[in-house]
Amino acid sequence: MGTNSPSHLRILTVDLEDWFHLIDYGGSADVEGWHRYPSRIQENTAFLLDCFREAGVKATFFSLGWVARNHPGLIQDILREGHEIGSHSDVHEMVRKQSPSGFRSDLRASIRTIEDASGQPVRFFRAPGFSITPECLWAFDILLEEGITCDCSVFPGSHAHGGFAQMVPGGPVRLRVSAGVLHELPVTTRGIGGTQMAFGGGGYFRLLPGALIRYWTQRSPYLMTYFHPRDFDPSQPVLPGLPATRRFKSYVGLARSRSKLKSLLAMGGFCTVSAAHDRIDWERVPMIETLAGTESR
Ligand SMILES: [Zn+2]
C-alpha cells in the first residue's frame, strides 16, 4: 500500500490471556475458578500466528504466568514463529490494587514461569488494564529491580482500570526512578472531545471504523498496539453477570475485527518491542525526572 515508512514506529503486541480474563470482573476474580471455563486461547492465538505469518510481521506477546503454566506448548508455538515473549503479570491483578510486595512477588512468579516455558529471559512488561497509575509509582522501581528494561504499561489518559492522565501522549519516554532509568513505550492514544482513545487494540479497535484506525495509524509516527486473542473470537461465550456497559465494551465489533487486523497489518512496518527498542535513540528520548508531578517532558 506504499505506506511503509522508516519514520513510522509501529509496535505489534498481544496480551496473551484467555477470553475469561476480563479485569475487575467478579466472576473471573478467583484464580482457582478459571479452570471451570473452557479454554479458547490455543485456537485464538493460532489465528493471530497465521495472520502475522501471512503479513510477514513479528510481535511481542505479553503472557500471563498463568497462561505459560497451563499452556507451555503455546509459548513454544509463539517462539517457533520468531515472536518474543514478555510478562503480563502472573494472575492478571491490577497493579494499583496490589501492595509493593504483592506486586513484586506476582511479577517474580510470572517471570520464573515464563522463563521456564520459553528458556529466554523476560525483559518486557505490560500491566493488566494499564493499571500503573500515579498512585503506584513504586511499580516502576520494582520492574527495573526485577530485570525489566522496557515497560509498556502506561496509558496516557484516563482509563477504566488505570491510566496516567498527566503523561503527554505521543511516543517513548524515559522514567527516572530510584533504581535507575526505565524505558517506557506507552500505548498510543488519540483524543476526541477530551477522551483519549487507544485505537490500536482492545475495545477501541473493535468499536472504531477500520478506515479511521488506518487514517490515525498513517498519521501517527509512533503506534503501540495491544491486541488480545479474544478480540478476534466472535464465537466466545458471554460471561454471566456483566453490567451492560462492560458487556458492550467486551464484545462489540467481534465480527469484523479479523478483517480489520489484516487491513491494518497490510500497511506494513510493524515490529516487536525489542526491534523498536533497538531502533530508538534513547539518549534523545524525553526524560521524566519527577514522576510525582508528571508534566516535565
Ligand atoms: Zn490483560
Short description:
With 297 residues, the protein is α/β, with parallel strands linked by helices. It has ten helices and 15 strands. Helix 5 links the parallel strand 5 (124-125) and strand 6 (150-151).
Outline the fold blueprint:
Blueprint lengths: L8 E3 L1 E4 L24 H15 L4 E4 L1 H6 L1 H9 L3 E4 L12 H19 L5 E2 L12 H8 L4 E2 L6 E2 L2 E2 L9 E5 L2 E5 L5 E3 L2 E3 L4 H6 L2 H10 L2 E3 L19 H8 L5 H9 L4 E2 L1 H7 L7 E2 L9
Parallel strand pairs: 1-13, 1-14, 2-3, 3-4, 5-6, 6-10, 9-15
Antiparallel strand pairs: 7-8, 9-10, 11-12
Helix pairs in contact: 4-5
Zinc ion binds next to loops.
Which labels suit this protein?
single chain, 297 residues, alpha/beta, TIM Barrel, five-stranded mixed sheet, three-stranded parallel sheet, 15 strands, 15% strand, globular, disordered C terminus, binds zinc ion
Structural write-up:
- The two termini are 34 Å apart.
- The protein has a single domain, classed as Glycoside hydrolase/deacetylase (TIM Barrel, Alpha-Beta Barrel).
- β5, α5 and β6 form a beta-alpha-beta unit.
- Strands 5-6-10-9-15 form a five-stranded mixed sheet.
- By secondary structure, it is of the alpha/beta class.
- Helix content is 33%, strand content 15%.
- Zinc ion (ZN) is lined by residues 15, 17, 88, 92, 128.
